[in-house]
Amino acid sequence: MKEASNYVAAIGRGLEFMRDGLPISSRLIRETQAVLLHSGRGTGKQPGAFRTQQVWIGGTRLGNATFVPPPHDLVPDLVADFERFIHREDDLPPLVRADIAHVHFETIHPFLDGNGRVGRLLITLMLREAGRLAQPLLYLSLYFKQNQEDDYRLLNGVRFEGGWEAWLGFFLPGVRDTAGQAADSTKRLLARIAADREVIDRAELRAHALTVRRVFTFIQERPVFTVRTATENTSLSQPAVDRAVRTLEGLGIVREVTGRKSRRVYVHERYLAILNEGI
Ligand SMILES: Nc1ncnc2c1ncn2[C@@H]1O[C@H](COP(=O)(O)OP(=O)(O)OP(=O)(O)O)[C@@H](O)[C@H]1O
Ligand SMILES: [Mg+2]
Known about the structure:
CATH topology of the largest domain: Fic-like fold
Order of helices and strands: HHHHHHHHHEHHEEH
CATH superfamily of the largest domain: Fido-like domain
Distance between the termini: 12 Å
Bound molecules: adenosine-5'-triphosphate, magnesium ion
CATH class of the largest domain: Mainly Alpha
Number of domains: 2
CATH architecture of the largest domain: Orthogonal Bundle
Oligomer: single chain
Helix content: 55-70%
Shape: elongated
Structural class: mainly alpha
Strand order of the largest sheet: 1-3-2
Number of helices: 12
């Protein structure tokens, strides 16, 4: 949970930079890393700063490591190279560029920790920068986690044998499948909302109908909510929201999940079920 919400915050930070017209840069990368490691794995390991010591990957010491990234004193220059590569004017398709850049970044391994997480997030930011993603809706982490063995093996294949084709053959289908799944879930979420709205429209709600619709609109952004958050976000009175939520509960659209008498939490259940698939 922490990691996912850090990811959302970090991508928000990256997009903020871009909205200000700034390109992906060493500073953006460091700031994003600091947000990603704000809590959870790697907190306290020099967040926001490039490493100042030698590291190794896989293994218990330098001598038995799977891969030894470059010495730390080279990192700032190597990241500058990386920046030049991702902004180079040539005819590489943006996806292929992001794909090559990912190996490039993971191989520099500029941080003490969080390199995997930052590297995966950078793919989304690069595609966004290239104008290929209107919203940061490509979340590749699941694919990489599910195929971690292949990921590591093929990264090392590039490093030791120049195995770019095999790497592309791993990465590109991952993007295709992940994007396809995201588009599919989105369509089904929209269909879910349309079906629920129809239930609301068909119910005999009379004067109450407008309030229920307003609360339902809010729920589309916050499928887990309390009467209080709904009240704060709809400019309706609390008793009105309370009544609307009970109506939605009665229609089978939301469900209370705590069983408590106070501070009750409601969920838009079938919507969440779609989001949760495959996770
Ligand atoms: N055995 C290995 N072979 C090749 N690369 C590896 C291996 N172990 C780790 N890596 C690389 O190092 C990255 C992990 O680095 P680091 O621990 O700094 O990042 P993280 O964000 O904490 O990790 P994760 O990717 O597990 O979320 C991996 O994503 C991968 O690129
Ligand atoms: Mg780590």
